[in-house]
Prior knowledge:
The complex is a heterodimer.
Chain A (H helix, E strand, L loop, with lengths): L1 H18 L7 H7 L8 E3 L13 E3 L15 E2 L8 H10 L9 H29 L2 H14 L1 H10 L3 H16 L8 H4 L10 H7 L7 E4 L3 E4 H13 L1 H5 L3 H17 L4 H8 L3 H18 L2
Antiparallel strand pairs in A: 1-2, 4-5
Helix pairs in contact in A: 4-12, 5-12, 6-7, 9-10, 9-14
Chain B lengths: L1 H13 L1 H4 L8 H17 L9 H15 L2 H9 L8 H25 L2 E12 L2 E10 L4 E11 L2 E9 L2 E2 H15 L2 H14 L1
Antiparallel strand pairs in B: 1-2, 2-3, 3-4, 4-5
Amino acid sequence: MRTSFRWLLLPALWLLILSGPALGEPAAPIGSSLDPFGGTSINRRSGSTLSKSQPSVWEVEGLDSSACYQPPDLPVLVAQSSKPSLKEEELELEEKLDTIADPLEPVNRIFFHVNDKLYFWALKPLASGYNAVVPEDLRLGVKNFFSNLTTPIRLVNCLLQANFKGAGNETIRLLLNSTLGLGGFLDPAKTELRIEKRDEDFGQTLGFWGIGPAFYIEWPILGASSLRDTFGYAGDLLLDPKTYLIQSAPVGLAIRTYDQVNETSLRIGEYEDFKKSTLDPYIAKREAYHQNRKHKIKNR
Amino acid sequence: MNRTFLIQAMLCLSFTFGMVAPGFAGDPQDQLRETTDKVLSVLSDLDLKSPSKAKERRERIQKIVDERFDWEEMARRSLARHWPQRTPEEKREFVPLFKALLERVYADKVEGYSWNKILYEGETIDGDYAAIKVKIFTAKDQTLHVEYRTLKKGNHWLVYDFSVEGVGLVNNYRTQFNEIILKSSYQELVKRLKTKSAQN
């Protein structure tokens, strides 16, 4: 695994040299991204708890937002940078609505309704029953296990976005969590080394390459997506070991359903609250999806 | 795909009540931190934990939040281009309705939440505007990137918007409000807001 990873790195490194300046990225984050450990390590300098008002000193290295990150006592004057200033950004936002095209809205709304009913009539009762029987720690373990299994998706997509720091982190996480983490049920990479998961997928890679979402699609069962992210999802399936390990379609479906039920059991009540807070839950969901995807693509 | 952003959109709203509250002098981030600590201290106050004190506790949290939360600015930005078309009476009616929508739904959310850690990642100041980045680690292993937008009024940096994992509150409501007003009317929007308040 180690060796093959190095081989993967070589052409990718070459890609970086070629594409680095063209991407218009500042040199520092890319340079630091070569350090696979640098990614998400957070060094806590002084012991502090939330309730204490004394300023806690944290040192954060290589955050996604590292380009504009400054220690708290050094306010950044954004006006001096090439980015639009906060003020300009706000004024611009007031003028236009940043929404996603939705030519399929009538169909999407039907499927939104279907998914809504699926949640309340099938998924939620299943997850609630499961929730009552299985302790939370075990359910978190199951979640970690499934997440560990899909490492190839995140690893390959980090590489496709020339994010070697992320790829390195994912490799370390896979090796560590599969062994010390008892096959992925535990997450010592995060809990002990503070190496966090890089949430990357092929839809984000396509976005990073400059492809827009095109338009919104609400898929039955799968939920919110866009034309771009639907292709992305197909790509992710090709990188998902479950696709190859499980030959029988009903078993595969059962396992994916179980994954979903387990995940839902950790989130009961959240969708309900979301609906309560919205005047048009369909629009709210669509826009939240759009904004969240944009955010994820930006923070690779 | 579906789940994650819903959660985020939700938490986006729910964290308001814990995170935002008044501050005194100082940088936007310090004020935010100070008020967060205030809310957290109310939440961890053992005297207020009993069910009989639930109402008092909620009121105290709401008061901390209310003092420096710029509800009108938030409502104005959410209505965006429809705001200037409203009469002063309509505006006076709208702001409390909008505030109630957010408050009633999420007050219990923040009370039920346990935060493992809050990490302040720094602030960006541009004149009277400031953005503060915060990372929240929840008990259920989630890491949330939150960004607050504040506007300086006097000595206070008042929060008028925030986003969680890129999902902005004002932007989301702006789209909803716009669609409802364009497809039906402003009166329909107010009607829906009132119905929501009654339901919750």
